[in-house]
Amino acid sequence: MIKIKELTKKFGDHLVLDKVEFSIQDREFLVILGSSGAGKSTLLRCLNGLVQPTSGQITLNGMLYNKKNIREIRRKVGFIFQQYQVIGNLSVLQNVLLGRLGTKSFWNIFFTKEERVRAEEAIEMVGLVDKIYTRVDQLSGGQKQRVGIARAVLQNPQVILADEPVASLDPVTSEEILSLLKRINEENGTTIVCNLHQLDYAKKYGERIVGLRYGRIQYDGAASDLGVSDVERIYGNHLSMQPNTGKTVKPSSTIQVLTT
Ligand SMILES: Nc1ncnc2c1ncn2[C@@H]1O[C@H](COP(=O)(O)OP(=O)(O)OP(=O)(O)O)[C@@H](O)[C@H]1O
Ligand SMILES: [Mg+2]
């Protein structure tokens, strides 16, 4: 469905993605793993057309990512952010309807009755029916993330890209949000590509894992096959020199616990 070929991104001299190459299958739940700075967000942003690759090629169902196609590609690719990207002084319903803005023209931003019904269905799916008219700034972090998910669902995309959707949430809420994404994947057949920092969630919810280190793929395979040596290749298990910045980085304690 999505084919990524020799995808390279440089910010100035800084090589962030280095000839990344893999395909994303229809209806797959793919998790991208990697240390901070590995290039995960940059990769997702390329897949949404928010970041322009330095070289390489991406296609969605054979359609090349370029200026001409980008509006159509964005309609088929939903995005969920770590920082919920909701508008606090609007209601849940209004925030979800914003997901349809991409289909409107400047002189017609009114929503149809059908759009409203579909927005209500999306809100029901994420479990926020009783908050439909509540201002979003009165919601918890987990509820705000549900609003973001409902907005992506209303767009009825083929793919939802989620950039660390549970980074600021407690463990119980995190699992609720990931279960919700899994349900959308299974019931709606939406392909999910999700950046995560938690290995245990990656193995529990992901079917497939792509592991990045310094913008290069270190692992691409079934989540159930990811072993300790793969994890070490993705994160490193010793003090190491980061080639891109020259900074010494120490692996986080979470990783050390999981690899021992
Ligand atoms: N717009 C930008 N301009 C310059 N450098 C950037 C830009 N966006 C990202 N980078 C750099 O690219 C590298 C990869 O960043 P990216 O956000 O993709 O990493 P990440 O894997 O998502 O990390 P994290 O887990 O911390 O979110 C970082 O060193 C970052 O500083
Ligand atoms: Mg990131």
From TrEMBL:
Which SMART domains does the record associate with it?
A: AAA (SM00382)
Q: Which PROSITE patterns match?
A: ABC_TRANSPORTER_1, ABC_TRANSPORTER_2
ABC transporter domain location is 2-239
* InterPro entries for the chain: AAA+_ATPase, ABC_transporter-like_ATP-bd, ABC_transporter-like_CS, ABC_transpr_PhnC, MetN_ABC_transporter-like, P-loop_NTPase
What Pfam families does this protein map onto? ABC_tran (PF00005)
Which keywords appear in this protein's UniProt record, sorted alphabetically?
ATP-binding, Cell membrane, Membrane, Nucleotide-binding, Phosphonate transport, Translocase, Transport
GO MF annotations in UniProt: ATP binding
* Classification via Gene3D superfamilies: P-loop containing nucleotide triphosphate hydrolases
* Chain coiled-coil ranges: none
What domain of life does the native source organism fall in? Bacteria
* Matching PANTHER family: AMINO ACID IMPORT ATP-BINDING PROTEIN, PHOSPHONATES IMPORT ATP-BINDING PROTEIN PHNC
Protein's name according to its UniProt entry = Phosphonate transport system ATP-binding protein
Q: Which organism is it from?
A: Ammoniphilus resinae
Organism classification, top ranks?
Bacteria, Bacillati, Bacillota, Bacilli, Bacillales
